[in-house]
Design goal:
2 domains; single chain; alpha/beta; Rossmann fold; about 15% strand
Length: about 375
């Protein structure tokens, strides 16, 4: 099964790899300045399901693409500790050979480590109890074995640590109702949530079933400590859902950066708002529903939620954008439009004149009180 998976890199795999390598590069440049205090001057990239390094058609997979990004940057190459793992010895041997052959690999101060171990309870225990340096972890299991809330929590628990994982919706959707794999479902959703989800999805239509499963996963991750959760959906050429990439972080900055990257990777937009490859979500799933709102709704939401309040543009963006598809530019555009229409009062705390066509993060926006 794994060998077949790596036969040829399709469009979905290319997009997935692009998202991961772009985030790695952005994340590394953000956390590096603080690593002397928190990471001893080092950062890590961790991939516990690394694969053989290349697809059979010769295309590089994510580990090589990430290392290439590191090699291109003198700062990253001096600080990076790369840890790759796969439970298949053939894969680890192939990956090691591909790493050794990478042009410029000698520029990495710390040679990448390639291990051959199962991702099991021991891995959960290690990451749960070990304080790790600032790390970006990618978990890409072929199915779901080894993927658990405890593992995700372990790799994001420390400062500067983010994670993105492959969520095989088709396999997991079948597993929810399969009594033979309830241990795996409980590890992924939690015992109580997995049992409740099994009862709820049994008679649900496919679209609603998908929303229920992803909604519960998102809430389980948030309750676990992953304050910011951002899913990205993939469908095949027939429009059928195949899988998701799910990003988890404790940092709004990481969430902001990944949202920009996922927005740029989206295949469709509505009024300039990226789809994140999502289909319209049902209002009964609040987290997913909010991720499917068009730009026209933003002004109305701000008027309702900030009535009588004053806040900076940046504070509004950080408070309001979580779980919604909007980027900073959308808030700036809408607030500027509202300012022009006299719907809000805008003051620059630094007393500087407003530049035409801009809306600085520091600007203080006051929304009128509700009419009596």
């Amino acid at each position: 099964m794994t060998i077949k998976f790596f036969e040829e890199r399709g469009d979905q795999s290319a997009v997935k790899a692009e998202i991961v390598q772009k985030y790695f590069s952005a994340w590394a440049n953000i956390v590096l300045p603080a690593t002397q205090q928190f990471g001893g001057g080092k950062i890590a990239y961790i991939d516990l399901y690394a694969g053989p390094g290349r697809y059979k058609d010769g295309a590089a997979s994510t580990p090589l693409l990430v290392l290439q990004k590191a090699i291109e940057s003198p700062k990253i190459s001096a600080a990076l500790v790369a840890l790759f793992n796969d439970m298949d010895q053939n894969n680890t041997q192939s990956l090691q050979s591909e790493i050794n052959a990478l042009p410029g690999i000698e520029r990495l101060k710390n040679p990448p480590t390639v291990n051959c171990n199962p991702v099991d309870k021991d891995a959960e225990e290690y990451f749960a109890k070990t304080k790790i340096i600032p790390s970006f972890t990618f978990l890409d299991p072929f199915g779901y074995k080894g993927l658990s809330l405890r593992l995700v929590n372990g790799v994001i628990k420390d400062w500067g640590c983010d994670c993105v994982f492959f969520f095989n919706y088709n396999r997991i959707s079948l597993g929810i109702s399969n009594p033979l794999v309830q241990e795996h479902m409980a590890a992924l959703f939690g015992d109580t949530r997995a049992a409740e989800l099994k009862a709820r999805v049994e008679c649900a239509k496919p679209a609603l079933r998908e929303q229920m499963i992803l909604e519960e996963l998102s809430h389980a991750l948030i309750e676990m400590g992953g304050k910011f959760v951002l899913p990205f959906r993939f469908r095949n050429d027939k429009g059928r859902l195949t899988h998701h990439l799910v990003f988890v972080s404790k940092s709004f900055k990481g969430y902001e950066v990944m949202k920009e990257i996922m927005a740029s990777a989206s295949s469709t937009t509505d009024q300039g708002v990226a789809s994140f490859a999502y289909s319209p979500a049902d209002i009964s799933m609040p987290l997913l529903f909010e991720l499917a709102r068009p730009l026209d709704d933003l002004e109305g939401m701000l008027k309702r939620e900030y009535v009588g309040k004053t806040a900076s543009m940046r504070a509004i963006y950080e408070q309001h954008s979580v779980g919604r598809p909007y980027l900073s530019k959308h808030y700036k555009n809408v607030l500027a439009k509202m300012d022009d229409a006299g719907a809000v009062t805008v003051i620059d705390p630094q007393g500087k004149p407003r530049k035409r066509g801009s809306f600085a993060d520091r600007l203080m926006v006051t929304f009128p009180k509700a009419a009596t």
